[in-house]
Fold:
Amino acid sequence: QQRLVPLIKDRFVAAKAELLGSSESTGGFSVRWRTAKGDELQIIANFGGDDVPIPKSVVGNLVWASSSPDEFVVRPDQIYVRRTYYTVRR
Structure:
């Protein structure tokens, strides 16, 4: 709640979704939302029966995972939630 509710209050201004795996019936997906301030939230999930390749991930904090993340694949029934914080470069 402390890490996600502020994102909702900042307004999501863009979203991108992609299916993971070699066919549309694999059951894996990645969704990324960007706020007006530039923060991002990503949910990666696999509801299929086979491993799917892990997509490009948001560089940031792992907020929640249903199990320990793998470096290369998303296993069946795994869900990851990541959040990145926009940093101002001067």
Notes: The first helix runs from residue 5 to 9. Residues 27 and 47 are 5 Å apart (CA to CA). The chain has a mean pLDDT of 85.
